[in-house]
């Protein structure tokens, strides 16, 4: 069995730094380079921030974080899940500069950044039920 951890936290921007630090610490068993660990931290930050900003209204909600390490193959898999509004068109949302929050001066680059800093990104979403962003990073 691969090593893993799961945690649930409120969708509060204050938890973004904790999530990225927890994942970075957990990934250390794969002996990543400093650049690789920074890539992971950036991707996790984007995924958690997307959930905080877009999934829920003012009432907030929960974000689930699951990390798994395959030490043998040096692969980290991270899934950030929210249980909020969901994304109507995932493919459109993955396009650079797509945003539903232009009035808040959002850049619409979250998914693009995640794709840039990971080896694989899968986004699954159902309107009214939430979104899961699964990211994989293969360490050299």
What do you see in this structure?
This protein is an alpha+beta fold. It has a single domain, classed as Histidine kinase-like ATPase, C-terminal domain (Heat Shock Protein 90, 2-Layer Sandwich), CATH 3.30.565. The chain is built from 4 helices and 5 strands, in the order βααββααββ. It has helices at 15-27, 34-55, 90-93, 110-117; strands at 3-10, 62-70, 75-82, 120-126, 130-138. A 5-stranded antiparallel sheet has the order 1-2-3-5-4, with helices on one face. Helix 2 packs antiparallel against helix 4. The longest helix has 22 residues, at 34-55. The radius of gyration is 14 Å and the shape is globular. The model has no long low-confidence stretch (mean pLDDT 91).
Walk me through the topology.
Layout: E1 3-10, H1 15-27, H2 34-55, E2 62-70, E3 75-82, H3 90-93, H4 110-117, E4 120-126, E5 130-138
Antiparallel strand pairs: 1-2, 2-3, 3-5, 4-5
* Tally of strands: 5
- Tally of structural domains: 1
Order of helices and strands: EHHEEHHEE
Tell me, rounded to a whole number, the average pLDDT: 91
Brief sketch in words of this structure:
The chain contains four helices and five strands. It has helices spanning 15-27, 34-55, 90-93, 110-117, and strands at 3-10, 62-70, 75-82, 120-126, 130-138. It starts with a strand and ends with a strand.
Search tags:
140 residues, globular, alpha+beta, five-stranded antiparallel beta sheet, Heat Shock Protein 90
